[in-house]
Structures are given as C-alpha cells and as structure tokens.
What does this fold into?
Amino acid sequence: MAVRIDGKALAAKVKSQVAAETAKLPRQPGLAVVLVGDDPASQVYVRGKEADCAECGIRSFPYRLPADTHQQELLALIEKLNADAAVDGILVQLPLPAPLEAEPVIEAIRPDKDVDCFHPYNVGRLNIGTPVFQPCTPAGVMEMLRESGISPAGKRCVVLGRSNIVGKPMAALLTQADGTVTLCHSRTPELTEITRQADILVSAVGKVNCVTADMVKDGAVVIDVAMNRNDAGKLCGDADFAAVEPKASYITPVPGGVGPMTRAMLMKNTTQAAAMQNGVAI
Ligand code: NAP
It folds into this structure.
C-alpha cells in the first residue's frame, strides 16, 4: 500500500519557513492579487491566497475588477503595480473572462514580479535551466518528491498533460533534476504502455479516473495534480485512487495533496521576489 504524501502538512511546513524568511526582510513583502469577474472557483482560490499571505507575514493587495473590465484598464493596473515599490509580486487569477486575453496581461507583468512564473522571460529561464522563479504547481510537486526522499535522477518520469502552467514546466523541472521525461497529451497513442514504464507518474489531465490501475507500474510514485469533481460532486484527482493506491509506492491524495503545495510555493516565490527587490539573499 502506498505512502500518502501529505500536501497539507508539507505546505504548513513550507509556509512556516516562508514566514521565518519574511520576518528577516527589511520590509514586509507585498503580493497584488487581481481577480476579474465573479467566477466562484476563482473567488475561492483568491481568498485562499489572501489567507496564506496573512499566515506568512505577506501584505496582500486585493484588486477586484468587474467582468466587463477593458483590456486596456487591466494593462494600466499592471503598469501601476509594476511601478509600486510595495508590491513585490503580481498575480492575475486565470482564466480571465472573455473577451479579455491573458497573454498580453502576462507579458505586461514585470518578470521580477511574475511570481506565477508565466512570463515568457521566466518560462525561457526555466527551460534553459536557470530559473528565477519556479512555477508554483510543478515546484510544489518537486518539493513533495524531495521531502519524501524521492529523487527523479535516473528515473523514468511520465507527465500527463502539456499545459503551460503544469505539464510543460513539470517536464522541465523533472528533466533538470535528471529524470528521463516523457510528456504525454490527448494525442499520445499507446498511453498505457508509456505510463506503465513510469517510476514517477505525474497526472495533470483533469478527467475523473483517467489514470487506472493497469496504467501504473508496481511501486511507482503517483503524483495527482488534477482537481476534478466526480458525479457526486466530490473533489477528486485523475487517478482511480482506491485501485491505484495499493500498486503505488507513494501517492498524493486529492484533496490534501498538490493543491496546498501550489499555494505554499506562491508564498515562497513572493518572499523570494521581495528579497530580490531588496537586494537580500535568502
Ligand atoms: P489543461 O490546460 O486543460 O490541460 C490538460 C492536458 O491534458 C492537455 O495537455 C490535454 O492534451 C491533456 N489530456 C487530455 N485528455 C488526455 C488524455 N486522455 N490522456 C492524456 N492527456 C490528456 O489543464 P491544466 O490547467 O494543466 O490542469 C490540469 C488539471 O490540473 C486540472 O484538473 C486542474 O484543475 C488541475 N490543476 C491543479 C492545480 C493544483 O494546484 N493542484 C494547479 C493547476 C491545475 P491536449 O494538449 O492534447 O489537449
């Protein structure tokens, strides 16, 4: 039976380390959290981020904009936040309501305040192996592996999903950690044959029970990034948890796995941004 990696406990540990680092900085770090529209899920995420800021000694600057905000108004806000010395990190909650476009907004954020690590400059730095920030979800997964004593070095790693926020940067970080990585997506043929070779299987698809027990090698580490709702409305991941857990050596539950780690890594990046902007090493 797999060991369950407790993301909640680990996130609490990361946040207490961040709070200790924050206290050493010459001034309180600040995170601007921009939410456009009234998507209920986004509102929950944003509230969670603001609570994390309070826990870590980070000042949060909330910006709630109506759904009919014009692209230029949003860009003007980003410019204002870029120039604000009290704001070390800028987070724009995605997805943006239509017809707003995310790309120009992401590219307008100053790269040294891009704590989500979505700006092309930071994505490029990540891919050449000299990251400034690490994107929160994949960084959280790497922290879970490290804390569990699992090194990707020399391991066969399979990532399901090729999104810019999870799959691609996950593959980059695992590659950097000397894993041999296969990145799969909806057009990948013979998926089960590939996943069955994985020593470390990271799933970020977003489909209930799309990772079945026959796709998992005995003793594999299974990291489930997804946050889905099953037919009963219960939060769950991609893995058929009851069937996969007995086969795996380690597994992350949903909820209580990768989700809390993503939030904790955002706090870590914000404190890192503040340290950089204050010229302090942490
Ligand atoms: P996304 O942008 O929708 O990407 C999903 C990816 O899965 C795509 O690359 C897609 O392939 C691939 N895919 C779809 N069906 C597949 C299949 N049958 N086999 C293999 N790959 C398949 O999603 P995302 O934003 O990366 O999020 C993925 C999941 O992670 C969601 O459940 C989301 O809620 C969750 N999430 C969790 C956290 C966290 O903190 N825990 C953070 C972010 C996201 P194509 O590219 O070919 O379409």
Summary: The mean pLDDT is 97.
